[in-house]
Specification:
The protein is mostly helical and 142 residues long. The chain is 78% helix and 0% strand. The protein has one domain: Up-down Bundle (Four Helix Bundle (Hemerythrin (Met), subunit A)). The chain is built from five helices and no strands. This is Arachidonate 5-lipoxygenase-activating protein.
């Protein structure tokens, strides 16, 4: 919520800086960048929440929480990078995609483990938690 409030504050600040009413500023590239970055972050947020919740519930909470915190940091990096030149936001965007993929794979592993337990009686939960706990620090590598 604080991150979304920060983004909205930046949009409002840039809107006031352009000396106009409303959020539509024709010809202001700085406002367009701030507004677009805010919209991009807002559109990615529901996907992030869904995979974070599923990964934490179905697989392991600690690696999912770590990946969630990393994603919030990366979104901040993406937003700030987007305010400069658009090419500066690419590392944050790619890093965010990698974190979303990690959370998605955690969710899939949790679902597969559930069906293995349900149909075959084999529980790999300890192995999955060990693997995800070992892999989650690799998210720090750019």
């Amino acid at each position: 919520i604080f991150l979304t409030a920060f983004f909205a504050n930046k949009v409002e600040h840039e809107s006031r800086h352009c000396n106009g009413k409303g959020l539509q500023r024709q010809g202001s590239s700085s406002f367009d960048r701030v507004y677009t970055a805010n919209q991009n972050c807002g559109h990615a947020y529901p996907t992030f929440l869904a995979v974070l919740w599923c990964a934490g519930l179905l697989c392991s909470q600690a690696p999912a929480a770590f990946a969630g915190l990393m994603y919030l940091f990366v979104r901040q990096k993406y937003f700030v990078g987007y305010l400069g030149e658009r090419t500066q936001s690419i590392p944050g965007y790619l890093f965010g995609k990698r974190i979303i993929l990690f959370l998605f794979l955690m969710s899939v592993a949790g679902i597969l483990n559930y069906y293995l337990v349900f149909f075959f009686g084999s529980d790999f939960e300890i192995h999955i938690k060990t693997i995800t706990s070992a892999i989650s620090p690799l998210l720090l590598i750019p």
